[in-house]
Amino acid sequence: MRALHVVPTWWPATRYGGTIVSTRALCHALVRCGVAVEVATTSVDGSVDSAVPVDRSMDDGGVVVRYCRCGTPRRIYRSPPMRRVLREQVPLAHIVHAHSVFLWPTWAAAGAARRFARPLVISPRGMLVQSLIDARSRLAKTLWIALIERHNLRQAAAIHVTSVHERDALLALGLGTLPPLVVIPNGVALPPATSVHSQPGRVLFVGRLSAEKRIDRLLLAIVGIPAAQLEIIGPDTDKLQPVLQARAAELGIAHRVVFRGLCDQAEVWDALARCTVLVLPSRSENFGNVVAEAMAAGRPVVVTPEVGAAAIVLAAGAGLVASADDGSLAAAIARVLGDPTAAQALGQRGAVYARRELSWDAVAIRMREMYAEFIRPAARR
Questions:
Q1: Domains of the chain: which residue ranges?
Q2: How far apart, in whole angstroms, are the C-alpha atoms of residue 89 and residue 110?
């Protein structure tokens, strides 16, 4: 089986957060379970380009990657060289898998899949949520849905979502008759062995510093828990750190809050090992990769209902789900911090579940099985 993945950005452009990590890990795992994977992507890394070859394919852990330069408009990743790559590679693939919406590469991939009669899977990656559409470029996104994305989605063989929450948010948009919406969660890499132990009262947040993460609500929750120390890890994509630091000072907890900025994966694993609880209070999160990482590390989690992984947390018995809009978040955090024995039990259940259900190899097998459903028998190898 040959799968062509079309992704707007790829490693090493880690500024784009969890999606770039999860798509790369998925592709590596698909290779391990026997799928030949090629990736068509761009060299965009913010306002510059990654130092990668754009004139030839390169190997990334068994995944064949072709980087393409962008033209204009750059903000939607329009790439004439990618169009040529798609003309060459789509006919050779058994299935095309496009990641993202509202961006040119998915539009181009959908067109090429139709032209060469190849089944298309689209992963919106949490972008088809009304609150996020309303929060940024609402008019442009609404027009894009009406003129482009609705047709792409309807013509796809399947739409891949990472959680029931993401599925329900997509259906709520009222896009009409859609192909099957298949729920397959993101996977998680297993943490390295460590002798580091959790430290009492240490609360950890990992994610982009953006409005939808509701870090301001987390700061407010920490006020009522005098023993809590908050560690915040993640890139300041929306220039919010000065605002959040000022808010922490205003609340009188600046001495209990540490901003560490963007950290590599080894540093994140170390922070997870040291924390007592991971908290993710997002207003919209299609999955929440760090929740799975915390579970794999044996740490309890507190999440809001809007986090896609909340269903997994409940299924595993790995933590608590609490609203960020009242005192529930503070109460949940205090409950975990105040009962070390119960917290340990939550963490242990999460670790068992993550290793059994959320390893990348297990997720890749489910993805391969989904692909097989849509590939014509005569085209299979």
A1: 2-187+360-379, 202-357
A2: 13
Domain 202-357 matching CATH 3.90.226.10: the answer reads no
| Per-position pLDDT tens, the chain of length 381 | 999 999 999 888 766 666 788 899 999 999 999 999 999 999 888 788 888 888 789 999 999 999 999 988 888 999 999 999 999 999 999 999 999 999 999 999 999 999 999 999 999 988 898 887 887 788 999 999 999 999 999 999 999 999 888 999 999 999 999 999 999 998 988 888 776 788 899 999 999 899 889 999 999 999 999 999 999 999 997 899 999 999 999 999 999 999 999 898 899 999 999 999 999 999 888 788 899 999 999 999 999 999 989 999 999 999 999 998 879 999 999 999 999 999 999 999 999 999 988 999 999 999 999 999 998 654 444
Question: Same fold for the domain at 2-187+360-379 and the one at 202-357?
Answer: yes
Pairing state between β 202-206 and 277-280: parallel
Which distant-in-sequence residues (6+ apart) come within 8 Å of 146 by Cβ?
none
Assign 228 to helix, strand or coil: coil
Q: Taking a C-beta distance cutoff of 8 angstroms, is the pair 102, 141 a contact?
A: yes
Q: What is the pTM of this model?
A: 0.81
Q: Are 66 and 85 in contact (CB under 8 A)?
A: yes
Query: 2-187+360-379 domain in CATH 3.40.1390.10?
Result: no
